[in-house]
Write a structure and sequence with these properties.
This protein has about 110 residues and is mostly helical. It has three helices and no strands. About 90% of the residues lie in helices and about 0% in strands. It is rod-shaped and about 105 Å long.
C-alpha cells in the first residue's frame, strides 16, 4: 500500500510539474512572439517611411532636372540625363545605379 500511495503522489507531482512547465513554456513562447511581432511592425514602419523618402527624393530630382533644362535652355531632359550618366558613370535611376555599383563591386573583387 505504501508503494501505491507513493506512486499516486509521484504521479500527481509529475502532473503538477508538467502543467507548470507547459504554462511557463507557453508564456515564453508568447513573449518571444510578441517581441518579434513588435520588431516586424517597427521594421515595416521604417520601411514605409524610407519608401516615402525615396519617392520624394526621386520627384525632387525630376523637378531639379526639369528646372536645369529650363534655366539653361536645354531642349531635351533625356539628353541631359544621358550625358550626365555617361560622363559620370552614374545613373539617375536608383535601381540602375545599385545594379551598376554591384557590378563594379563584383568586378573589383575579381581583380
Amino acid at each position: 500500500m505504501k508503494i501505491l500511495e507513493e506512486n499516486i503522489e509521484l504521479k500527481e507531482k509529475y502532473e503538477t510539474l508538467e502543467s507548470s512547465y507547459n504554462l511557463k513554456l507557453q508564456e515564453e513562447k508568447t513573449k518571444i512572439q510578441d517581441k518579434y511581432e513588435n520588431i516586424i511592425y517597427n521594421l515595416e514602419k521604417e520601411n514605409n517611411f524610407l519608401r516615402r523618402v525615396i519617392n520624394t527624393f526621386q520627384k525632387t530630382v525630376e523637378k531639379f532636372i526639369h528646372w536645369i533644362c529650363v534655366k539653361f535652355s536645354i531642349s531635351e531632359e533625356n539628353e541631359l540625363i544621358r550625358n550626365f550618366e555617361l560622363e559620370n558613370d552614374t545613373y539617375v535611376d536608383p535601381v540602375k545605379q545599385i545594379e551598376n555599383e554591384k557590378y563594379e563591386k563584383d568586378w573589383d573583387f575579381e581583380l
